[in-house]
Amino acid sequence: MSGIFTQRRIVGAMLIAFAILLPFMVGVRWQQVFLLTAIFSLLALGLNVVVGLAGLLDLGYVAFFAGGAYAAGILLDASPINVPDDIPVWVVLLIAMVFTMILGVILGAPVLRLRGDYLAIVTLGFGEIVRIVANNLDGVTRGARGLNGIRGPVLFGVDFKVDPRPYYLLTLAIILIAMFVLQRIEHSRIGRSWIAIREDEVAAEAMGVHLLRAKLLAFAIGAGTASYAGVIFATNNHYVSPRTFTVFVSILILCQVVLGGLGSMLGAVVGSVVIWGLPELLRGVDLPGDADINDYRFLIFGALLVVMMIFRPQGLIPSKRRSAELAQRREEAAQSGVPMQGGES
């Protein structure tokens, strides 16, 4: 057992080393692709807490992404509001995290007594409300014009400017820290409370789980993780606009989580790599009749999702806990002679 554990650590260290060296082996275009993939991996990690662990279907997750991006734009000299100059990036990340966590609590407090489809519809509306407010709050966000000229961070004496590599390395560091922290939370009492809520809210409450508090904590942690992605996205582009934060972005992030495997931290990252990396690999591939494969990207993507849901519904890298729970249910169903429900089989 210890030998297997050691092998996993060696493989993990090699993958991390490869991920660090990757942007130095390719051109600027692929560096930007890797950065975007890392940003959306961070978003998928946050949404995985809400959907994968706590079982709360959130279709307005893009609101927290927007909150982090606009917090960076306001604090880094792009807003009409006067703020102190030369605010360090660490302070910006901290303020953005606190702001979006408060935003998550504001969203969660009135709506987390809802379940299932009703919760999904309300969170969808919240995401649109945040986008519309950003579009109309001209005195703070410059409305539809967006915040332009967002100052890039300076970290350890390195001015990031427009080079994607330092942004990528910073995002990678945050991803590794987030995976470590979230994995520890998952195996703590808080994580077990989320999983109990995901499986059966009534039974969880009967066993002493405070439903609202546990759900609010899941929303706040997911929102805080999304804030980091928003800050890096805004500072790398030096511009942020309400047009970026549509419901389609929320759906894409949810697809990353489902494709990678609900409840799986590594699966969330792998799902992001597939969704953002695969289309770039296919870019420029010519089809018969002078057709471009980019015209069929979403058709191909949708077909892949359907195939995944049929042949591997637990995702590319299933959560070990969920796989063990499903195996136990199958065994209990076989012993009792009662068939499992369709969503569980």
Give a quick rundown of the structure.
The protein is mostly helical. Helix content is 69%, strand content 3%.
Provide a descriptive summary of the structure in words.
The protein has helices at residues 2-21, 28-53, 62-75, 89-111, 116-136, 138-141, 164-186, 189-199, 201-206, 211-237, 247-260, 265-282, 297-311, 320-336, and strands spanning 147-148, 154-155, 158-159, 239-240, 286-287, 291-292. It is mainly alpha-helical. The protein has one domain: ABC transporter involved in vitamin B12 uptake, BtuC (Orthogonal Bundle). Strand 2 (154-155) and strand 3 form a beta hairpin. The chain is globular. 40% of the residues are buried.
Write the layout of secondary structure elements.
Elements: H1 2-21, H2 28-53, H3 62-75, H4 89-111, H5 116-136, H6 138-141, E1 147-148, E2 154-155, E3 158-159, H7 164-186, H8 189-199, H9 201-206, H10 211-237, E4 239-240, H11 247-260, H12 265-282, E5 286-287, E6 291-292, H13 297-311, H14 320-336
